[in-house]
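Today's session is about reading a structure prediction critically. Students often jump straight to the picture, but the first step is always the sequence itself: look for stretches that repeat, for charged clusters, for runs of hydrophobic residues. Only then move on to the predicted structure, which in these notes is written as discrete structure tokens rather than atom positions. Here is the chain we will use throughout the hour.
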Amino acid sequence: MDKDNKTITISKHLYELLERKIQQDKFDSVDNYVEHLLLQLLQVEGSEDLDPEEEEKIKQRLEKLGYL
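Below is the predicted structure for this chain, in token form.
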């Protein structure tokens, strides 16, 4: 696991729903799927809030996951 990652807590029920969802999609883990969703949400709400360095980190992460 990447040293820069942080842990969040969600309900077991939500986690199980996400596990079922990723079986239908191209994601290999709930972590990757949740990160993808959060990045999409942040982009919709306005990427202008991100500094250029953070935006570059996000782009690199998306490329690493195969989305760009």
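Discussion point for the tutorial: The chain has a mean pLDDT of 81.
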